[in-house]
């Protein structure tokens, strides 16, 4: 790649944070800018500095990509849905007619641990600013775990056949909606930038 | 011109640069700068995320080529993008007419 050491260093930093195809595209833009500046200024060092100043620093560029990423949006939606669905299940279980007591303590603890890790992954996806891959992986992990947890709770209800109630119906609907949300997001998180 | 002034208008501005034909990211940024006599000179690196967002929204379509040994992604307007650009133009004209009428209509009444 023809260019300047400063440009190469900038691109290496971006390559550590962004997907390869994005870096290829950014490299083309940055090198086109460098060529323009070389034509204007004639000095490689001055041209590289001018091109980099015009391009923006790596933190700002990465943050702009992360803000616009579908992974971050999916994670945010799932995080917002979390407390709503959680409140529905909490109310349904507290007011349950004893059926929830049949769920073993170990299963409850495992569920709680998985739920905590899902929340942690989704929060990471929303808060991370500098590493696009981290955002994508965290959102993917969070969405997958949420889908598994909701499926498990649906399976538990089907197995235990609790007495029907409006609260339980609302909670089940919330879980089904969240499974659909997660399943719809997962292919995008795998295939898209 | 300050970047905050562009809020809500950046998409329309980027779409407008592609109206005459396909462009790559750096050319889009340069076209925007040239069209505004240098008053709108966005950092090159921040134009790309906006183009990716427009592509995900189906307003533009990107394709790869190799130019001078470098991989280059070029964008063109889709039909949906053309409609969105027309809508952005209408909204802007309406907004500008309202604000111009308010700002150019003489001194504001005294408040005290």
From TrEMBL, chain A:
Residues spanning the membrane: 75-96, 102-125, 137-160, 166-186
Keyword line: Membrane, Transmembrane, Transmembrane helix
Keyword Membrane: yes
Domain of life where this protein originates: Bacteria
Protein name (record): DUF1700 domain-containing protein
Organism: Microbispora hainanensis
UniProtKB/TrEMBL annotation, chain B:
Membrane spanning residue stretches: none
Pfam families in the cross-refs: PadR
SUPFAM superfamilies: Winged helix' DNA-binding domain
Top-level taxon of the source organism: Bacteria
Limits of the Transcription regulator PadR N-terminal domain: 14-86
Protein name: Helix-turn-helix transcriptional regulator
Organism for this UniProt entry: Microbispora hainanensis
